[in-house]
C-alpha cells in the first residue's frame, strides 16, 4: 500500500487519501500505519449531536486544495466538547482523512486515492465494544450500525473506492 501511495501523482504539494469503512473496520489502524501521514479523523467533526461534514470540507479539504494550512478544532469524545487547542495540518506530504464518512460524495473528488476498509459486522461490533465498553453495545447495534447501513445504501462509498482493503486482521 505504501508503494501505491508513493506512486501517486498528487495535484499539488499534498497527496490526499480518503480511508472509509464502517466503524471498527480498521480505518484508524490503517491510517496510523501510513508512514509520515498527517491523519484527520471525521470523528473530530462531531459536534455532540451530529457530524459536521461541511466543516471538514471548509476547514480542511478546501484550504489544503488551495495549498494552505488547514486549521480546525476537533471534538473531544471523552469530555463531549471541542478541544481547546486548534489543530493545524500542513499543506505538504501525505494527508489522510479517515472515518466512516471519509468517502462521502461531497469529498470524493478531493482525493488522490480512495480506500475502503472491509471487515465482517460481528468483528466490527466486537472491536467497537472492546474500545467503548460493554455499555456501548446498544448504541453500536441500534444507532451507529443502522446509520452506517443507511449511509452506505445512499452514498455507495465502497463503489467509489480505488482500493478495497481487508480490515479483518487489522
What does this structure look like?
It is a single chain. This protein is α/β, with parallel strands linked by helices and 170 residues long. The chain has a single domain, classed as P-loop containing nucleotide triphosphate hydrolases (Rossmann fold). Helix content is 35%, strand content 22%. It contains six helices and nine strands, in the order αβαβαββββββαααβ.
Number of helices: 6
Strand content: 15-25%
| Uncertain residue segments | none
Cα(first) to Cα(last) distance is 14 Å
Task: Name the CATH class.
Answer: Alpha Beta
Structural class: alpha/beta
Q: How many separate domains? A: 1
Strand order of the largest sheet: 2-7-1-8-9
Compressed to H and E, one letter per element, the order equals HEHEHEEEEEEHHHE
CATH fold description: Rossmann fold
Offer a few descriptive terms.
single chain, 170 residues, alpha/beta, Rossmann fold, five-stranded parallel β-sheet, two-stranded antiparallel sheet, 22% strand, globular
In short:
The chain is an alpha/beta fold. The chain has helices at 2-6, 27-33, 53-65, 121-132, 137-155, 157-160; strands at residues 14-21, 38-41, 70-72, 75-76, 81-82, 87-89, 93-98, 113-118, 163-166.
Task: Annotate the secondary structure layout.
Blueprint: H1 2-6, E1 14-21, H2 27-33, E2 38-41, H3 53-65, E3 70-72, E4 75-76, E5 81-82, E6 87-89, E7 93-98, E8 113-118, H4 121-132, H5 137-155, H6 157-160, E9 163-166
Parallel strand pairs: 1-7, 1-8, 2-7, 8-9
Antiparallel strand pairs: 3-6, 4-5
Amino acid at each position: 500500500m505504501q508503494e501505491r501511495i508513493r506512486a501517486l501523482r498528487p495535484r499539488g504539494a499534498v497527496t490526499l487519501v480518503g480511508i472509509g469503512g464502517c466503524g471498527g473496520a480498521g480505518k484508524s489502524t490503517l491510517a496510523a500505519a501510513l508512514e509520515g501521514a498527517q491523519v484527520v479523523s471525521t470523528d473530530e467533526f462531531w459536534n455532540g449531536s451530529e457530524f459536521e461534514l461541511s466543516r471538514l470540507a471548509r476547514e480542511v479539504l478546501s484550504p489544503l486544495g488551495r495549498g494552505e494550512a488547514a486549521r480546525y478544532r476537533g471534538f473531544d469524545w471523552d469530555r463531549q466538547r471541542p478541544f481547546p487547542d486548534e489543530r493545524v495540518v500542513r499543506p505538504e506530504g501525505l494527508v489522510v482523512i479517515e472515518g466512516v464518512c471519509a468517502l462521502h460524495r461531497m469529498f470524493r473528488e478531493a482525493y488522490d486515492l480512495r480506500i475502503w476498509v472491509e471487515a465482517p459486522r460481528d468483528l466490527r461490533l466486537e472491536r467497537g465494544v472492546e474500545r467503548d465498553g460493554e455499555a456501548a453495545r446498544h448504541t453500536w447495534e441500534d444507532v451507529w450500525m443502522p446509520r452506517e447501513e443507511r449511509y452506505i445504501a445512499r452514498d455507495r462509498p465502497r463503489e467509489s473506492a480505488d482500493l478495497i482493503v481487508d480490515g479483518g486482521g487489522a
